[in-house]
Amino acid sequence: MNSPQAQAAEAAASAQFLTFTLGDEVFAMDIRTVREIIQHGAMTTVPLMPAFVRGVINLRGAVVPVIDLQARFGRPPARITKKTCIVIFDAVGSAPDGAAERVELGLLVDAVSEVIDIAASNIEAPPQFGAALRRDFIRGIGKVGPRFVVLLDPDRAFDVNEMAGLCESGQQALAA
Description:
By secondary structure, the protein is α+β, with helices and mostly antiparallel strands.
């Protein structure tokens, strides 16, 4: 049996992650960045956006862009099913003065699974090769029992400035 001090140290060395699926793969992101999870609903498409920007939703009066995670990873766009959800989370952007600011984004996923605890000792560095997505998108690989969970780094995978640049270059290409 662990002492209260050992339990407190273990709790401090672990973090909670929201797990979700894309096809047969399990991904997760730090629960502290997640604001809420909503069902897929009415979405307004925005012309001249890259394929990974599925559209925008009205979330209590705020316009929230929705990123199709499948398309962001260079895969075909996600199919909408009964279990499709939008994870609302905070991403990092920069204000006109260059200061960092939090921007609310929606993430289209096949299904949300659960919130899990992963000890820091069970998180490995991203693989050097063989990953099906950009290495800088991955915070690490979490070992959860017999399976692995890909831990996303939302500040890199959903970098607002990088995605805005992709939108602008796509618009310029269409205008040319």
